[in-house]
Amino acid sequence: xxxxxxxxxxxxxxxxxxxxxxxxxxxxxxxxxxxxxxxxxxxxxxxxxxxxxxxxxxxxxxxxxxxxxxxxxxxxxxxxxxxxxxxxxxxxxxxxxxxxxxxxxxxxxxxxxxxxxxxxxxxxxxxxxxxxxxxxxxxxxxxxxxxxxxxxxxxxxxxxxxxxxxxxxxxxxxxxxxxxxxxxxxxxxxxxxxxxxxxxxxxxxxxxxxxxxxxxxxxxxxxxxxxxxxxxxxxxxxxxxxxxxxxxxxxxxxxxxxxxxxxxxxxxxxxxxxxxxxxxxxxxxxxxxxxxxxxxxxxxxxxxxxxxxxxxxxxxxxxxxxxxxxxxxxxxxxxxxxxxxxxxxxxxxxxxxxxxxxxxxxxxxxxxxxxxxxxxxxxxxxxxxxxxxxxxxxxxxxxxxxxxxxxxxxxxxxxxxxxxxxxxxxx
Length: 427
Prior knowledge:
The protein contains 17 helices and 14 strands. By secondary structure, the protein is α/β, with parallel strands linked by helices.
């Protein structure tokens, strides 16, 4: 962190100056340390983005070490930020959530523009991946930087080595297109000893949509865009995967649990599972680069950013900046990468290179393959996005279950979303 920021944030007060010293620099004669008032900085998270251990190791302890007067605290209530404010509670200093959720609070006046603050406090925004910051500035109409990303969810193709060995099939490799993964899945989809082994699965429609940066509704115009060629492409890939005999779509239970516990899925395309994989040391697994579309090679899910947003109404602006200084320091970001297996959103490749290095359970795994892909651009979510998603997901199930053809399903999804928007606007 820049010296100017360090001096300002440490609360140092210069009380006397002499004239010019050598080289024209001002010579400081006396410095008085101004004691900083003890303060509690409160975080509220919309979802479980920080575990208690993460919060302690990445925020509480490093902040206390650098700035002893600051106590970082996570809001333990289940009350949403909206309810906090409705009750007149303005004690929350930071919101923690997924960047796509930021739209939910846009009309509440809780955000502030971090860019001028970064300039004022010499906080270097050039250290972040530009695409990540672009995903955030695209959300408000005025293009303000209303949050900072501390991690980006990765995507990977996890596979059960024992199943590939059992059926004498070569392991998945980096650089596969979806079509390659589908052909491989056919070879390991088998019924054996009364157990149906599935070749390929995912944890939801989003895994297929996001690499193409697809969004159901244009957030600016409310135009519904699901009945389009890119959506047809996604539906067709899904249809090919789930019409492999024995690999039919299964809505029952949690796909990730079936991979980790039941062990009847050979390949699973999903997000960051590394910490959960530590909990099943007897699972013989490895990981390969996420399959990509031929029109977007080496691209996995769109920017899926975990963010911290400083609340505009907070009266602790300098302490908010102190906390962000610590969280986004090289030291804490490296700890997050090495120990917490979260992917930093820093431009410097050293953070990805050291990913999960302190986790012995991940030694020897093909972690480098995961980072051969880059995140796709993330479109801004419409305020109707989450309600609309149910219609698209339902029609995806209709397609992959052979209940409807692709064109009919997308037309029906389009009509249902248009009706949703009309109804919501009429309230």
